[in-house]
Each structure stands twice: as structure tokens, then as C-alpha cells.
Amino acid sequence: MSSRSLDDLVPTVKEKAVAFQKACRDAGIEVLIYCTLRDYDEQNALYTQGRTTKGPNPTAKRPLGNIVTCAKAGESWHNFGRAFDFVPIVHGKPAWNSASLYATCGSIAENVGLEWAGRWTGPLREMAHCQDRGGMTLAEARSERARA
After folding, report:
1. How much is the pTM?
2. What pLDDT score was predicted for residue 59?
3. Is 81 exposed, middle or buried (0-12, 13-18, 19+ CB in 10 A)?
4. Of the residues 16, 67, 142, 148, which has the maximum number of CB atoms within 10 A of its CB?
5. For residue 141, what pLDDT is reported?
6. What angle do CA 7, 115, 13 make, to 5 degrees?
7. What does the pLDDT look like over 41-92, one tens digit per residue?
8. What separation, in Å, do the N-terminal and C-terminal C-alpha atoms of the chain show?
């Protein structure tokens, strides 16, 4: 199950998430962080969307819906409390399709030391995704999780 709590982020990432929200607010943008820690089952469920299961978007271009992640369980920084997803809020409503607001928020995220997935050039840019790997590889994060 996914969490929205900043307390589920590792402390250094939580600090950056709080700084991100404050810097966005200072720039006149309200943001909602709607996903922090995600368990392996939820990650795998998201991975199947658009591939083998239908996603929630009835207007998607693909028969099974849009692919929402390229990461299987253990391949997402959400699984280790090192990532969060956000949406800008305008007049009390999520602005899911505002590329300019996401770009502004993405720059703010980078300024507080986060990696913003809106800059990714691979198969899936994620405008709503920020992460801080803490200098670790996924293999190191999986190993650390196994020891916990």
C-alpha cells in the first residue's frame, strides 16, 4: 500500500521534501505530495498497468491504458522511502496537466537537492516524481532493506 506521509521517507529525503514544499509555497505554488513510500505489491500492481491490466484512465491511447512506471518492485526509489510524487494545486484542485507548473516545481526540487524525473530522457518522463538516491545503487538499497 502506498503512503502519503512524509514520515515514511528517510530523514534526509523528508527534510528535502519539506524544503521543496516551502520553496514552492514561497514561489506561490501549493503542492500536494500524494505518494511517498510504496510497498512491493503496490509497485508491481502499478507496473502491470498498461501492460497486462487496465489502468484507471478510460481515455488512454493504449488498449490496456497508459504505462505509468518502468519500475518493478525493488526497482523504484519509492520502495526505499527515497522518492515522492507531487501535484501542483490551483484553486484547490490538482493541476495534473500543467507542464509549466511541473517545470517550475521541478526546478525548485532540483534547487533543494532532489532529482526531478521530468528531466529524464528514457522511455518514461515522470513530471510528478522526485527522488534522492543518497549516493546508493538500487542493489545497495535492496540489500539495506533486507537487513532492516
Report:
1. 0.89
2. 62
3. buried
4. 16
5. 93
6. 20
7. 999 999 998 888 776 666 666 666 788 888 999 999 999 999 999 999 999 9
8. 19
The x, y and z cell numbers of residue 102, run together, are 511541473
Label residue 52 exposed, middle or buried (CB < 10 Å: 0-12, 13-18, 19+).
Answer: exposed
Question: What is the residue-wise DSSP string for the chain?
Answer: -----GGGS-HHHHHHHHHHHHHHHHTT-EEEEEE----HHHHHHHHHBTTTB--S-TT-SSTT-----S--TTSSGGGGT-EEEEEEEETTEE-TT-HHHHHHHHHHHHHTTPEEGGG--SS---TTEEE--TT--HHHHHHHHHH-
Region for 94 from its dihedrals, namely left if φ exceeds 0, alpha if ψ lies in -120 to 50, beta otherwise: beta
